[in-house]
Amino acid sequence: GQSYEIRMLDNRKLGELPEINGKLVKSIFRVVFHDRRLQYTEHQQLEGWRWNRPGDRILDIDIPMSVGIIDPRANPTQLNTVEFLWDPSKRTSVFIQVHCISTEFTMRKHGGEKGVPFRVQIDTFREGDSGDYTEHLHSASCQIKVFKPKGADRKQKTDREKMEKRTPHEKEKYQPSYETTILTEVG
């Protein structure tokens, strides 16, 4: 339920895709499973979640916090998907809320589970000749894990302690921690 900002940036090179200048594009955000094993059963996993949490959504847009988004929509049948239009030439920040936690999809339910990693994926489309947004422009994603506040604090503390015990050589294998995450382009 915590709101996280995702800044939408126009990363075109000069002169690239001039046909979207002054036009709106559509971005679709999805929270999906990162692990291939869970991707195969994603539909059943999400149906199970829906059954246990009637009326709840996995992903929402915090509309009052967001800037520059137009016509935000959340399809009632797709609990893990939201979409909106935006103008690449204007400042756009969308604040998303994930309403499920990573341990809701683990087998054991007695606490202390690792929790499954999710992936936030953003697919952006431009308007086609028929007026619908179907022409793919860009996709990007990043891995996330979602915990309740106390669990998240505990996880960060144990992760920090684990890193401190590693040798400098072992530490090189890990990415440093950053205030912001740049999403990875998906091919």
Automatic annotation (TrEMBL):
The lineage of its organism: Eukaryota, Metazoa, Chordata, Craniata, Vertebrata. It is found in: Nucleus. Residues 150-174 have a biased composition (Basic and acidic residues). Keywords: DNA-binding, Nucleus. GO terms for molecular function: DNA-binding transcription activator activity, RNA polymerase II-specific; RNA polymerase II cis-regulatory region sequence-specific DNA binding. Residues 1-187 form the Grh/CP2 DB domain. Its main location: nucleus. PROSITE patterns: GRH_CP2_DB. This is TFCP2 factor. It comes from the Eukaryota. Residues 177-187 have a biased composition (Polar residues). It comes from Tricholaema leucomelas (pied barbet). GO terms for cellular component: nucleus. InterPro entries: CP2, TF_CP2-like. Residues 149-187 are annotated as: Disordered.
